Amino acid sequence: MKSPEKIFEKNYLEDGKKILNIRKMDAHEINATNFIFTTTGGKFILKRYASVSEKRLKLISEVISQCRKDGVKVPMPIGDYIKENGHFYSCFRFVEGSIFDGSTQQTKEAARELASLHKSLSKIRRKIDRPDTELHNILTLEEVRKMEEDIGHYKKNIYQNLPFIKKEIVELGLGIVSRTQLERIPKQLVHNDYHTMNVLFNGDRLVRILDLDSIGTGVRVRDVAFAAQRFSKDVASAKLFIGEYNSHNKLSKAERNLIPHFAVHETMRRVSYILRSYYFHGDATWLGDFDKHIRNLRRGDAWR
Predict the structure, then answer these.
(1) CATH number, domain with residue 208
(2) Does a structural domain hold residue 110?
(3) Contact partners, residue 189, CB within 8 Å, separation at least 6
(4) Are 92 and 75 in contact (CB under 8 A)?
(5) Cβ neighbours, 10 Å, residue 202
(6) What tens digit of pLDDT does each residue of 128-178 get?
(7) Range of the domain at 49
(8) Does the predicted model carry a pTM greater than 0.85?
(9) Are 84 and 149 in contact, with CB atoms under 8 Å apart?
(10) Is residue 99 included in any domain, yes or no?
(11) What is the rounded CA–CA span in Å between residue 231 and residue 193?
């Protein structure tokens, strides 16, 4: 079995250049492992996909090509994806940057770049399923009931929040937003995971949008609502994000009215994924994100 070093050397290392250092990135990704290669010709990221179809990789390549043509700050690919050792690999040029600092300028910049991304993605007019699993479906009340019966299985913060989670599930199921309303909302390719850890900044300028693996057809305003929560510390800064986005990529009145619904619904999907993975499948990978999503859920609930 070829090592990442051999795969990079064979497929992506420029002629006459040498590898100086290799580092496996610590960041969690469900579907990929990333390696940073420092060479005499620059720095690169080698991405090894755990489970992805070639059809989806072709989509990602098409998306990146269109976005780069439109000037969107997406990764710069080096060559094409390849298959080795039963895994697909892609390589991208590494970009130095810092994480989101919570400033007003960076909040507005993140909103503007999401607007640019959506404009570019809207040019790819075909339906692509997002790479979700059943684990992302909203928890059922029966599942929550089973969790409540097993008090000892939980950390205190989870058990204390189960009544609130149950209330949110009930309200989401009451049909406050009609099917007709949802069917009229524009759908297109969207990022599906645009948040503070998936962008890089250089000062106030956003220099890279990361993790395009989750792109798929979805509701545009859902993407905006989720991002507004993740790039804000309160309702006021969330509204700042939404206003800046709207000034660069107009949302209809119907879309704006549905932002509170989608802020809650999308965050509840994240909470459901974490709890279902932990309780029913013994996977605690994303448990550290639980409190953050609960805070966002309560803030989104305040928008109603």
Answers:
(1) 3.90.1200.10
(2) yes
(3) 63, 121, 122, 124, 128, 215, 216, 217, 218
(4) yes
(5) 12
(6) 777 666 778 899 999 998 888 876 666 788 888 999 999 999 988 765 666
(7) 4-93
(8) yes
(9) no
(10) no
(11) 12
